[in-house]
Each structure stands twice: as C-alpha cells, then as structure tokens.
Design brief:
The chain is an alpha/beta fold and about 170 residues long. The chain contains five helices and six strands, in the order ααβαβαβαβββ. A six-stranded parallel β-sheet has the order 1-2-3-4-6-5, covered by helices on one side. The radius of gyration is 16 Å and the shape is globular. The model has no long low-confidence stretch (mean pLDDT about 85).
C-alpha cells in the first residue's frame, strides 16, 4: 500500500523522520522477530504492567497484525492485563474476520478499529458492523480526533479506546 498514491500508507510517518535511522530500523526488526518467541506474551504483559501507568495502551505505532496468531497473542496479553484498555488500529481486516469466525471473542478491554485505506477515504463500516468492531476513517458522523490541535498528543482524550464511539476520524498530520 505504501506505493499506492493517496493511500494511508503512502504518507506514513514511519517512512520518514526517526523511523528511517538504522538504529530504529534495527530495533523494529528485533521486535518483529520477537513475535516467534514463545515468551512474547509473558514479556508484553510484564512490559505493559510495569510501564503503562495511564491505564491505556496502543498497539503498533508502526506496523500491523502479522496474522491470526499474532492477534491471538495480543488478545492473550489483553486478557492478562484487564486493568489496561487496549486499542488496536488495523488494516488487516481479514485476520480479525478469521479470528472471529473461528468462534473466538475479543476481550472487553480491547478496541479494534478497522482503518480506512485511503486518505480522506471511507472507513470499512459495513464490515466492521458485521464483526462488531469499530472504525477510523472519513465520515460525517465520526468523532474527529483532537490530536492535531494538541501538539500531536492524546492528552486526556481516550476516544480511540472507547467502543461506544464507532468511528474516529484522524486529520492528516
């Protein structure tokens, strides 16, 4: 998608800034490779429990689900950290669909938001409603994320983690 003009991925912040430095790339690669480590869930539970004092955790500042197994591991972490609200933005709708079709359920403390594929494009609302998840993308009825007016910080806004807000729109920044 990064090579598709007008796609969200074509303007991704992870293709510029500090993400392009070799040390950051190396760190991201180590994190990616760690997904095959059987201790990954335990390590994430420990890291989130020890470091996340706000009570909120966002998955993936760069990257996305790598498969149904990866989603299952995230669900396992969420189940073991019930005191934390988790937000998982994803364009990998098919992995979520496969997970849910298998009879598995998302824990109450995990909000999955299917992302629009194109800048200012519609969110996949029909698919999301069918699977009981939330979305992010252009919509007249969406909540607009205030981060662009807050120095690119959430501050006290936690709408992305709130399942009762179906659609959140993010301004290009």
């Amino acid at each position: 998608m990064a090579k598709v003009p007008g796609s969200i991925c074509s303007i991704c912040y992870a293709l510029k800034g500090r993400y392009v430095f070799k040390n950051v790339q190396d760190c991201l690669e180590r994190r990616f490779k760690s997904l095959t480590d059987p201790r990954w869930v335990d390590a994430m539970v420990t890291a989130i429990t020890n470091r996340e004092k706000s009570g909120y955790f966002r998955w993936h500042d760069s990257g996305d689900l790598q498969g149904v197994g990866h989603l299952q591991m995230i669900v396992d972490v969420c189940k073991r950290t019930p005191q934390i609200k988790h937000w998982l933005p994803t364009r990998e709708w098919s992995f979520v669909r496969q997970y849910l079709q298998s009879g598995s359920r998302l824990p109450d403390n995990l909000t999955v938001r299917f992302s629009a594929l194109m800048v200012d494009g519609p969110a996949p609302e029909t698919i999301a409603k069918a699977w009981g998840v939330q979305v992010s993308g252009a919509s007249d009825s969406a909540f607009t994320c205030p981060v662009s007016k807050q120095g690119n910080k959430c501050r006290d806004c936690r709408t992305c983690w709130d399942r009762s807000t179906f659609n959140v729109t993010y301004k290009k920044h």
